[in-house]
Amino acid sequence: MAGMIPRCELRSDYDISRIIKGGWQLSEGHSQALSDDPVADMFAFVEQGIDTFDCADIYTGVEALIGRFIAANRQRAEPLAVRVHTKYVPDYGELGQLTKAKVEQIIDRSLSRLGVEQLDMVQFHWWNYAAPGCEQAAQWLAELQQAGKIALLSLTNFNSEQTRALLEAGLTLATTQVQYSLLDPRPEKSLIGLCREHGMQLLCYGSLAGGFLSDRWLGEPDPTAPGGPGLDNRSLIKYRLMIEEAGGWDALQDLLGGLKAVADRHQSSIASVAARWVLDQPQVAAVILGARNAAHVDRCEQIFRLKLDEEDRAVIAALRGQLGVPAGDVFDLERDKNGPHGRIMKYDLNSD
Ligand SMILES: NC(=O)c1ccc[n+]([C@@H]2O[C@H](COP(=O)([O-])OP(=O)(O)OC[C@H]3O[C@@H](n4cnc5c(N)ncnc54)[C@H](OP(=O)(O)O)[C@@H]3O)[C@@H](O)[C@H]2O)c1
Fold first, then answer.
1. What positions does the domain NADP-dependent oxidoreductase occupy (predicted)?
2. Is 34 in the pocket of ligand 1 (CB under 6 A)?
3. Are the CB atoms for 152 and 124 separated by under 8 Å?
């Protein structure tokens, strides 16, 4: 069954599963119930071929949790191969005052939490382009890569202009992790073209919009309408805002209805159609799915049993044509601290 999950090469000596197991949903403070045994779940994913995990220095408790999995894996007679992609997200309040020692301290902390000698990938995030030091911090990460502490250096949530600036400064970047979905096509504006030019690939989150792009929400009333139950986890709050950018709850329902018809042609699901569509786009190496527990493994495999044909693609193109397109480039809306997307972010999670 492991053969069901295709792989993608990021470098001649480095490949990943095209579904990456997301870690944010495992973090303290995300407010979704965790599995009883998250380490056993990680084994279940890897055994089925989903051997690439995403986490971050700021996902509270998650690097340490994956570290427990790595330690348990090492005890096995034949340890399983696994890739762990983490992030370096310096606190908003620290930007402009970073030193190489501070950067190295966070990288060392990730090494220690994971219990490894080299981080497979570090994805660099920078909250505020007006703050000085972004390129310098990236160069320090490249030096730590040279020193052997990091295998691949990547970005997350950089817009096209700032990605280009780092590439022109001579950095070698493997991937960029960005939001990309049927509701959020911002990478198509220019980032995908830039990545193609520079041999970078996309690792995509939000492809299921926190679960809104699934059968679960088809025909449901807007939970945020007056008198509604509201939303109980941070992903849904974040993606509900993106739905607004795409035209609102009715627009989501029209999209879900159309996707359901596509899914039914293939005995599949809305989530599989949504994820498969992203995986079929140029430069997309993988989608990162917020899979909380082993129950999600089968659903991941379903994505690759599905093949979208010409007719499906035409239906999906027409559905997309009816949606609004979020303003700006990748993460520009979220970067505005005073706007609705920026106001729900947590900016200073890195301090111990
Ligand atoms: N770089 C960044 O700024 C950033 C931001 C957000 C996320 N991420 C990364 O991306 C990962 C994924 O997060 P996301 O925000 O993109 O969430 P997502 O994958 O869009 O949505 C996750 C939710 O979708 C549902 N789901 C997952 N697989 C499904 C399937 N096959 N069929 C139906 N429903 C499914 C699950 O709901 P149930 O559990 O209720 O079934 C899950 O909680 C995170 O864990 C994190 O690693 C990165």
1. 18-318
2. no
3. no
Is residue 48 lining ligand 1, measured as CB closer than 6 Å? no
pLDDT by residue (tens digit) across 13-34? 999 999 999 998 888 765 555 6
Cα-to-centroid distance, 147 and ligand 1 (Å): 33
Question: Considering its fold, how many domains does the chain have in total?
Answer: 1
**115: in domain:** yes
Ligand 1 centroid–CA 182 distance in Å is 14
78 assigned to some structural domain = yes
Beta-carbon count within 10 A of 301 CB: 18
271 C-beta closer than 6 A to ligand 1? yes
Q: Is 145 in the pocket of ligand 1 (CB under 6 A)?
A: no
The mean pLDDT value of the chain amounts to 94
pLDDT at residue 278 is higher than 50: yes
pLDDT band of 348, cuts 50, 70, 90? confident
Cα 251 to averaged position of ligand 1 atoms, centre (Å): 21
Contact, 350 vs 88, CB < 8 A? no
Instruction: For residue 244, tell me if it sits in a domain.
Output: no
* CA 206 – ligand 1 centroid, Å: 6
Q: Cβ-count burial of 154 within 10 angstroms (0-12 exposed, 13-18 middle, 19+ buried)?
A: buried
Query: Which range marks the domain in which residue 181 is found?
Result: 2-210+271-307
Q: What is the CA radius of gyration of the chain?
A: 19
